[in-house]
Task: structure prediction
Amino acid sequence: MKAVVLEKRGADGAEWRDFPDPIPAPGESVMRVVASSLNRVDLYMRDSGVGITHELPQVMGVEGAGEIVEAAPGSDLRPGMKAILYSEAFCGKCRYCLAGDQPLCESVRILGEHRHGAFAEYVAMPSHCFFALPDDADLTHAGLLMTAYLTAWRMLFGKKILRPGESVLVAGIGGGVAVACLQLARMIGARVLVTSSSDEKIARAVALGAEGGVNYRKDRVSKAILEMTRGAGVDMVIDSVGEASWGESLRSLRRGGRLITCGATTGSNPPSEIQRLFIRQLEIYGSTGGSIGEFRELLDVFGRGLLAPVIDSTFAMRDIRAAFDRLSAGVQFGKISLVV
Ligand SMILES: [Zn+2]
Result:
């Protein structure tokens, strides 16, 4: 088959080339991939990969949707059915899996990180990681749900649910997770404010239902947010920017508000501001991925046609370098889709 194979670190490290077909282990099934999407973790793996245990060469791609071609005996799958992958091959036996919290699985192996991924014509995964899609499902849309949209789902509706009428500030609008948060928060009737360095991205966010935004190059974020919320601050902040935005994100929260982080693009060690934390009784917690239960909820909403993901651009997998260039440039709004 053909696949995007990571041979070495660096800009010329990943290439669309011949690679052996996947051989399913017992209990695994095989999917013909139709679509996937490029994520920041792919860029991180291409350029660094520190902290991710894998051996090169490695097929990239942490999510995918397509059509089952080989179904494991005893599974509910059948050849020809449309399917989407839950990207975390979880053990199903540890205390976290048994509690339904698969993203915390003690021996999780993530597609495209710890095992060969979905930037390929074919991919094998444990059968319990495949979820059937309706016959009329748009596989290009499905190919980009797992990472950005499931991550957003868990942050908004996971530990502390965002309620209709509450307000959420999404820092750094434009990236896949941030745009997904905007869409999902609007879907339930929450108020959304955004930050960006680009007036154009703020305008696009407003067109998608955001109430307003702050250009952090021109204005101080917390001051503007307090003005927009009549001095109260927001109920929730979603921050994947990290060091550069952290302080202003904390200062934009109402008393007792919550900050959820799922990334640290600009660095991991901002000042903690402990005094602010306890006096204003703020909550901070991290989030990554989503559980099988959350994935089912997301797929149900998607399957009923209530969610159309925002696609920034579409590339053929063979043009992986151009797709990486687009992601590195930081100019995208929504997801970078990849099709076989
Ligand atoms: Zn487990």
Summary: The mean pLDDT is 96. The longest strand covers residues 28-38.
